[in-house]
Specification:
By secondary structure, the chain is an alpha/beta fold. The radius of gyration is 23 Å and the shape is globular.
């Protein structure tokens, strides 16, 4: 894989960033829904077949879609057909190189493992960025995007639309008003995965479709022979490309927790799961995070709190007073249970439909900025609004990278805990320095490569094949900061 365009477009980054500026609609006299042509963003989409398609539909209502990029032109065909005037690309680097001067903002909705490199390259060119969740595939990548967003002062948003929703605002306002007292434990769960997990790596090599560029899909990850089980969609369950159910859903389900309780870095983490394989996420997992006490608010204190994550059928205990016969899994395939000293707050995925076990309906003061129709396109439109505002006067989006990057670090660190669970201990996390502090130099990790099972003459025969032991510190560091495949390189972390 060559760096066909990276060098040239990064060299021109500063110049490209200064070419286009968006004039606020107030200056242009915009009113009553009219948008002057000069007030429209020129948006490029990278990874447009899945969620990218939905995001673009919510952007194209008001803005120009000038370029489209995808590694699978069959999967992306419906979007290509909807925008015949947009220039089409396989490789985002070539798109940036050829059209960098005419692009104002970038949508990135590729597989998890390529979010960071595409998003960081866009920001170094001075482009506003909307990136799907989870923001990145590793802790270091999330830290990098947080830092770059601050350096380049661009408008950013992660694609967890519930963060902009009024229900999430209510969760925050109820807790900040002291309606449920101090929260010392939160249980979060989801019905995901809904894609195959817990699988041995495929041994069959499939023919690569002519409409798919497998090399570009792989990007910075380790190259594996192509198999149809990886793409599209099912990549989420494979460690090299996705982050399993935790990465997929925690950015929706845990986000109201991090926002309302003002969580920073966790201090401790511990995980367990069903059978853990080297290449594929387990069918079900439990992660326990511990967050230290935070600065109190006027009406509520923030003591040390445990946040528990369950997926794949694992569920927390039903809280006292939860109605009999009611499904614990709430709207959107997720549940959050805030255990307070005065009451228990429950909401669904995206913070939907919050309610109190006591039956009270709080009347808390409005403290959060509202985003209209957040779940129906308002989340994307709020980012577009921020793109058009001057950096000096910009009202930050609800899931800008300073916020969503920190959430993603937590999510990615939970994935690490799952993959390090054979150390059989609670792991101590130094957030500022992105490292576990209690992994010893002589500790090793054994990883199950293949779970082989046969029935011979009616008897089950199990044959578990393990990789050679790996130094645990080395393994953890690779998970925290990936080593990219030759030809692919992240921009450097700013000083």
């Amino acid at each position: 894989m060559s760096n066909i365009s990276r060098r040239s477009f990064l060299q021109r980054g500063a110049a490209a960033a200064a070419v286009f500026s968006i004039v606020p609609g107030s200056i242009l006299g915009k009113s009553h829904g009219y948008v002057a042509p000069t007030d429209k963003l020129n948006i490029a989409g990278v990874g447009i077949g899945g969620m990218g398609n939905s995001n673009l539909k919510n952007m194209e209502k008001t803005e120009n879609i000038v370029a489209l990029c995808d590694i699978d032109w069959k999967y992306a065909k419906k979007v290509f057909d909807r925008h015949p005037e947009s220039k089409k690309y396989w490789d985002y680097r070539k798109m940036f190189d050829e059209m960098g001067k005419s692009i104002d903002a970038v949508l990135c909705a590729t597989a998890d493992h390529t979010h960071a490199i595409i998003t960081s390259d866009a920001m170094t060119l001075g482009k506003h960025v909307y990136t799907q969740k989870p923001l990145t595939h590793s802790v270091y990548e999330a830290r990098l995007l947080r830092t770059l967003a601050k350096k380049y002062n661009v408008a950013t948003q992660m694609g967890n639309q519930g963060s902009s929703a009024t229900d999430t605002d209510l969760v925050c306002e109820w807790i900040w008003n002291g309606e449920i007292g101090e929260v010392t434990r939160v249980d979060c769960c989801t019905n995901r995965p809904i894609w195959p997990q817990g699988l041995n790596a495929p041994e069959k090599v499939d023919k690569i479709p002519s409409t798919l560029n497998w090399d570009l899909f792989t990007g910075p990850a380790k190259m594996h022979p192509y198999n149809a089980i990886y793409h599209p969609w099912n990549w989420r369950g494979w460690w090299d490309y996705g982050t399993g159910a935790l990465g997929d859903m925690a950015c929706h389900i845990i986000q109201p927790v991090t926002a309302s309780l003002k969580l920073g870095y966790p201090s401790r983490v511990e995980a367990s799961s069903t059978l853990l394989l080297a290449d594929c996420a387990p069918n079900a997992q439990h992660v326990k995070y511990v967050f230290p006490a935070r600065e109190n608010m006027p009406k509520v204190a923030f003591p040390e709190v445990e946040v528990h994550w369950y997926d794949g059928g694992m569920m927390p205990d039903r809280p006292a007073g939860f109605p009999e016969g009611m499904d614990l899994m709430r709207e959107g395939g997720g549940t959050c249970i805030f255990h307070g000293t005065k009451d228990t707050l429950i909401c669904g995925c995206y913070g939907q439909h919050p309610w109190l076990i006591s039956g009270r309906v709080p009347n808390a003061p409005k403290m959060c900025r509202r985003v209209e129709n957040a779940m129906g396109g308002g989340h994307e439109q709020d980012w577009i609004r921020a793109c058009k505002e001057s950096p000096e006067n910009r009202v930050q989006t609800k899931s800008n990278f300073a916020v969503s990057g920190l959430l993603t670090e937590m999510v990615d660190m939970g994935v690490l805990a799952v993959r390090l669970q054979t150390l059989n201990k609670e792991l101590l996390w130094d957030g500022p320095n992105m490292q576990f502090t209690n992994i010893k130099d002589d500790e090793v990790i054994k990883i199950l490569k293949k779970d082989d099972f046969k029935v011979v003459d009616g008897d089950p025969k199990f044959n578990k094949i393990w990789n050679d032991p790996i130094p645990a510190k080395q393994f953890a560091q690779e998970l925290i900061k990936h080593n990219y495949r030759a030809g692919w390189k992240l921009v450097d972390m700013p000083e």
